[in-house]
Every structure is written in C-alpha cells, then in structure tokens.
Amino acid sequence: MATRNCIDALHKLPPTSRTAGNFHYGGHYDAFKLPVSGQAGDCAVSVDLVDSNKFERSTWEAVNKAASDLIFGCALDPQKYWAGPTVGGKYRIADNDNEKEGILVKVKKTAPRRSEAEER
After folding, report:
1. Which of 108, 105, 38 is CA-nearest to residue 66?
2. Using the 8-state DSSP alphabet, how is residue 19 labeled?
3. Beta strands in the chain (DSSP E)
C-alpha cells in the first residue's frame, strides 16, 4: 500500500500538539471537537469518539501517532489489514479497557482496481 495519500490525509487533521484537551462532540468549536477527517486521493483518515455522549482527554500527538502506526502497519503488512475492497484499520485511544469509551482513529484506503488483463 502506497502511503503518500494516507500521509497527506493525515496532514489535513488539526496540527499535532502535546497540549492535552477534552475531545468532545457538540457545544463550542475548538481544537478538540470531533468528528474530523482528512481525505487525499484514495485514502481517508478519521477521528471520532467511540461514545458521542462522553469526552476523552488526550492530545493530537497521540492521535497522530495512532494514525501513523496504522498507515505504516498497512504499508509493511497489507495482508493483515485487507477487508474486501479496502485496506486499513482502526485504533482506540483510551485510559481504560472499556471498549465503549475512547477516541477511535481509522485509516481506510481503497485497494487499486485490477485490470481485466490481470484478472485473466
């Protein structure tokens, strides 16, 4: 999986910062309001809350690292991340083991279409 489009999509998210904040839905607009996404070519990176009724304290640096790990994991071992016509994965950032809480980071890249000659 080529990573260039995914890295470009990642760069469309808010800037990486070590400043911690409460990622949240609704209410006032600030640097931690979700959901957000970035798209470049055939790759999309999205960040969302697992539960929109909660908030999660973290940093954009942690979100960026999770997305980068997914992007490069897909590039190094794409077979591990194939799901139908797409390749990608998701990563949950949370300070506990409750699967119903946290920040969900997803990377999704559409697989290249095979030409008719390749299918024969």
Report:
1. 105
2. -
3. 21-23, 36-40, 43-49, 56-58, 82-83, 86-93, 103-110
Check: CB of residue 44 under 8 Å from CB of residue 93: no
Each residue of 11-45: pLDDT tens digit?
Answer: 999 999 999 999 999 878 899 999 999 999 989 99
Question: pTM for the whole thing?
Answer: 0.81
**Average pLDDT score, the chain:** 82
Assign residue 7 a region: left if phi > 0, alpha if psi is -120 to 50, beta otherwise?
alpha
Give CA–CA dist 109/59, Å, rounded: 24
